[in-house]
Amino acid sequence: MRDTGRSSSGRPAGVIAGFGFRTGASVQSFEDALAQAAQGREVTAIATLSDKAATPAFAAFLRATGLPLYCVSQAEAQRMDTVTHSPGSQAARQTGSVAEAVALAAAGRGARLLGARVISQDRRATCALAVSETSETCAPDTTIPDKKTSNAFNQGETS
């Protein structure tokens, strides 16, 4: 995995790996979830909720990858339409899947998921990949895509 930089809007460019996780997730939890989600794809950035980014195991995982981090606010994540609808995630974070929501939010306008989120074997971390389908970048004042346009699964595309 290598860092290909950021778009002019400051959002990461390329394939974004979004993470949600429970207390007690380990570096191995993140590595396992990423390996399952990526399936050999090159990931260019990592995303998670702003209030989770400094968690010691997540920070260690991030350092090990050498990839840039995109922090997503709770409000941004709540605006994303997710494929997965976990009752626990909905109750705790008001989104069906934190991993899917942060990946979509980080990828920006025209983003789509490359698949539903995957769960690490120890069930402590989830990971989902998103990519932007448009070549244009978001201007700094552009709003987050609404639920109807933020992900291709709404149109039945499941690549």
From TrEMBL:
Biased composition, class Polar residues, residue ranges: 150-159
Residue intervals of the CobE/GbiG C-terminal domain: 15-130
Pfam families: CbiG_C
Gene3D superfamilies the record matches: CobE/GbiG C-terminal domain
Region (Disordered): 135-159
Coiled coil regions in record: none
Superkingdom to which the source organism belongs: Bacteria
A single BP term in Gene Ontology: cobalamin biosynthetic process
InterPro entries: CobE/GbiG_C, CobE/GbiG_C_sf
Protein name: Cobalamin biosynthesis protein
Lineage: Bacteria, Pseudomonadati, Pseudomonadota, Alphaproteobacteria, Rhodobacterales
